[in-house]
Amino acid sequence: MTPPFPAVVLDLDGTLTVPGTTRPAQGVVGLVEGLHARGVPLAVATSASTRVARRVLDELGLLRCVDSVAGRGPDGVDAGKTAVVGEALLGLGITAAAPGTPMLGDGPADIAAALAHDLLAIGVAWGGTRPAALREAGARVVLEHPDELWALGAS
Ligand SMILES: [Mg+2]
């Protein structure tokens, strides 16, 4: 079975979790587990510290599904989302993303970072940013529910 996507990059807060909490957003655990089960390499790119991000993913039961976690380092310097996404991709061994590699995020900075790396920029509506604002930032699609991602992949 061919994986439906070459890889998927995911923002953490507001995308995998309910904004400002460590609770999973509805449907995301099933999506991440499903992508992992189908052999899709997964990376998380976050403005949170890498250490905190790994702990949150562990609490969600998803750390085992994720191959690369990139965030702020111990020095506390926030290099910006575009740099973090680049690091997340490198963690998957990717220096240039294959066409059709999605990145999911709930904020305009996620969309900008996705576009900077030639990723398929996908907004998520459950993080609180208006879908129109995500589209204005360049999101190709705005998902209302995580399961809608499947329709964008190879079957
Ligand atoms: Mg976010």
UniProtKB/TrEMBL annotation:
Ranges that cross the membrane: none
Pfam families (alphabetical): Hydrolase
InterPro entries: HAD-like_hydrolase_sf, HAD-like_sf, HAD_sf
Protein name: Uncharacterized protein
Gene source species: Actinomycetospora straminea
Lineage: Bacteria, Bacillati, Actinomycetota, Actinomycetes, Pseudonocardiales
